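In the current project phase, the collection of sequences with tokenised folds has grown. A representative record is quoted in full directly below:
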Amino acid sequence: MKRMVLVSLLVWVGLYAAGSEVGMVSYVEGEVVLLREDREPLPVDFGMEVREYDLIRTGDDGYVVVDFLEEGGISGSVEIRPGSVFQVVREEEEKTTAMELFAGQVFLKVKRLAGTDEVVVRTEGAAMGVRGTEFEVITSAGGDLLVVCTEGRVACRTGEGETAFAEPGKAVERRVGERLRTVLFRLAEAEDLKRNWLTERMEAFRANAPRVFSLYARLYRERKGAFDEAYRDLLRRQEVVNEWIRRYKQGRLSEGGPEALRERKELAGVMLRLRKELFLFSRVYYRLVELVSYYHEGVGHGRLDTGEGIGSFVAQVEKEARELASRLQYVRFVMFLFEQRGRSLLGESLLFED
């Protein structure tokens, strides 16, 4: 059975300021919404602040540019292209700012770096380490990956220790279940490379849709089970979470004194596991949202490798979608509260491990 391999794009940079803001919207067009806290989706507009654990979702005509806060040691921006799902999270115990690309594509510009902490752009396939560069990360409907660097150099590393370098004139590709490989191109033809790659991978997906659906059906059921278990564990601490929400909405999240130390001891393990399962399941869930849309366009009719009809599986996903989307948003809000409470009371994340 083919395995999905975690992709991380590593950029050495200082952590953002202690506040929750990680950037600001400098340009937007088309349908772009932001999911924050426990609110309804917010239309994204010019000048809107982007906070950690905000989920940005672009429609088929949506496009948004987020400028990073220079206080964090990086002068640059991320362009989130149409049909993408994206968020930013600070992981202070690992000295990392993580950019999660759940679907679609982003173009990252890093103009100035400071400090020795990491910025990680995660998707499926490899780990790319860069220092002062411009590069684009593109994912296909089937989970394939293309990294195109137009300035500087990007080190692409897999979990198995394989390494390849993306640089001007040499892209790096990883298809699901395969090794990294380099793709040579003329710099003036970079746009043609990206466009042709997306077209070719879409054709491959259409030709092998039952196999792609089979892979994600297995991942969906495996990771949903793990996420549900972690979510139930969170609900056993509902009284504490409700108190965080009450204080947050009253502007009193930083109150509590010694309570924060007790929460750190009692809840850190629960929250670490929950965050892990949140990210793992989100990658599958938002990819499936994309696949389901193609199913309704006539792609993927047939059977899974288990013999189950793809239509039956799609019906299950759609039946569970509203509740799962609500749970994912709630967990992101709880993670945001947990992190902010730790920073305000302890000067560090409550997830910090001694």
Remarks:
- Residues 184 and 284 are 30 Å apart (CA to CA).
